[in-house]
Each structure stands twice: as structure tokens, then as C-alpha cells.
Amino acid sequence: DDGARRVGEFGIGCNRGITRPMRNVLFDEKMAGTVHLALGAGFPQLGGRNESALHWDVIKDLRGGGELHLDGEVVQRDGAWLQ
Q1: How far apart are CA 37 and CA 12, in angstroms?
Q2: pTM, two decimal places
Q3: Which domain, by its residues, includes 23?
Q4: Is 2 helix (H, G, I), strand (E, B) or coil?
Q5: Which of 10, 7, 16 is nearest to 59 (CA)?
Q6: Burial class (CB in 10 A: 0-12, 13-18, 19+), 26
Q7: What stretches of the chain show up as alpha helix (H) in DSSP?
Q8: Cα dihedral value 55, 24, 80, 7, nearest 10
Q9: Under 8 Å CB-to-CB from 3, ≥6 apart: which residues?
Q10: How many domains would you assign to the chain?
Q11: Number of helical H runs and strand E runs in the chain
Q12: Cα angle at 40 between 66 and 46, to 5 degrees?
């Protein structure tokens, strides 16, 4: 499955109402202070073109020391936006 090697989705969690993992990826990937990506299939209804039998979500919590960079600038530290 060649599409399983490609990123099908990337997102930045911004929902401050979700403060801890809920053990439901549809909520967990939206938790503020996290980023997530999915390997495999994208969502065609949202413009995704990658086709695969796989859609595997991986979530990283940045609130404990992570940074998010955009164009070489730090825009988020420890899960909080800098400006």
C-alpha cells in the first residue's frame, strides 16, 4: 500500500476545553497544545488526495516542553501560542 507511507493529515489542536486525553482520537487530536498527523489516507471531502487502506493518527502533546516552529520562528512553546 504505497499511500500508507504518506502523510494524509496534519493538524494543530486548539480546543482549550479538552484538557486531558479522552481515549478517543477524534477529541484527543483537537486538544489544545498538541499536534497530530495521520499516515495513510487523507479526507477527500477536505481536499485530501492520498489513497490508502490505512489512516493512522499520531498525537504529540507539546505542553511539557515542545515547540512549534513556522518559517524558522517559534510560534508555540509548551503548548501555548506566543502571540
Answers
A1: 9
A2: 0.83
A3: 2-81
A4: helix
A5: 10
A6: exposed
A7: 25-28
A8: 0
A9: 40, 41, 50, 51, 52, 53, 54
A10: 1
A11: 1, 6
A12: 85
- Sheet with 73-77, strands from edge to edge, namely 67-70, 73-77, 80-81
Q: State the cell numbers at 45.
A: 471531502
Query: Over the range 44-80, which residues count as b (16 or more CB within 10 Å of their CB) and which as e?
Result: eeeeeebebeebebebebbeeeeebeeeeeeebeebe
Output the tens digit of pLDDT for each of the chain's 83 residues.
Answer: 999 999 999 999 999 999 999 999 999 999 999 999 999 999 889 888 999 999 999 999 999 999 999 999 999 999 999 98
> What cell was used for 58?
499520531
The C-alpha R_g of the chain, in whole angstroms, comes to 14
Q: Quick check: helix, strand or coil at residue 57?
A: strand
